[in-house]
Amino acid sequence: MVSPSTYFSFVVFFFCSSNFAFTTAAQTTSPFKKIYAFGDSFTDTGNTRSVSGPAGFGHVSSLPYGSTFFHHPTNRYSDGRLVIDFVTETLLLPYLPPYLGHKGNASHGVNFAVAGSTAINHAFFVKNNLTMDQTPQSIQTQLIWFNKFLASQGCNGSVSSSPECKAVFDDALIWVGEIGVNDYAYIIGSSVSSDRIRELAISSKTRFLQALLKKGVKNVVVQGLPPTGCLPLAMSLAPEDDRDELGCVKSANNQTYTHNVVYQNTVQDLRNQFPDAAIAYLDYWNAYAMVMKNPKKYGFKEPFMACCGTGGPPYNFEVFSTCGTSYASTCSNPSQYINWDGVHLTEAMYRALSQMFLSGTFSHPPFSSLTDRKQHV
């Protein structure tokens, strides 16, 4: 059993197909012309690289990352595409360039998500001696980047009333991927309570969303947290008697489930504050749990083992020999695995989740209501 301090030091670093139409297969035009994305490593399409990202996964710029679809590393924490990539495909848009690498062409949007990012400002963790300086970015950092991007497009000020701002926001979808898992990881082994983290993380995300909505954005998607207790990292470190009905780590899943309940109430408050905006909540926790309850239905044979890792069954995960190290090996059939490297998911799992979000019942309201609304505005 790894000590809580070791778990704390290591876990924080980690969070650190075809198109499917909204309503008919004949759809040939997209109601959205651009996407601005935010989040952590589940959404990051290249703002982090091996030299700058979470140390536990210091090989994202090398194979086997990216091997399934792109056939080369793209600084995505997976073997292929992420949820945000399937969203762009569905909306008939190009893949989003990372903010830190874009060359000025942002006509179809930009991705501000960065691996290792937290919801709470980094200063809180520094104050409480919980800092990992390698990934100091937070959702507020991404807001600063977004404001700099807006200024580069000639859009200044808090309200998007100028022609330059309208050019940025018109026909735009704001996509806020999951963020907050790292915040809980920072406090493992400390005296800071998960209740305190939940309060501060949701407060920070609320301020972030309010700042965007005050600028005049009209279409927003926010993701809840996944059931982190189902990841090989958590499974390999938690005691065997800490399990829930999914076979996952009960304490970790309860933590993220409770977070999501409070977050959904906050999202509803934002809908009341900004009645002209459409805000969809994606139920990441229950979508993931649905797959775990019947993995074969979704084509998965290995619900718990990492495709890329070390150690073999039951989890193929060792904290100091992660995917990309010389000790790790990669499975030959990642499409049959839910987990890619022990913390991040395979392209196949991201595809399944994307379909559940965009065409299924795990978006509230349905994602199609945003696209229909946009087409009729």
Automatic annotation (TrEMBL):
InterPro entries: GDSL, SGNH_hydro_sf, SGNH_plant_lipase-like. CDD domains: SGNH_plant_lipase_like (cd01837). Pfam families: Lipase_GDSL (PF00657). SUPFAM superfamilies: SGNH hydrolase. Residues 1-25 form the signal peptide. Keywords: Glycoprotein, Hydrolase, Signal. It comes from the Eukaryota. Gene3D superfamilies: SGNH hydrolase (3.40.50.1110). The keyword Signal applies. PANTHER family: LIPASE_HYDROLASE FAMILY PROTEIN, PUTATIVE, EXPRESSED-RELATED, ZINC FINGER FYVE DOMAIN CONTAINING PROTEIN. Belongs to the 'GDSL' lipolytic enzyme family. This is GDSL esterase/lipase. The lineage of its organism: Eukaryota, Viridiplantae, Streptophyta, Embryophyta, Tracheophyta.
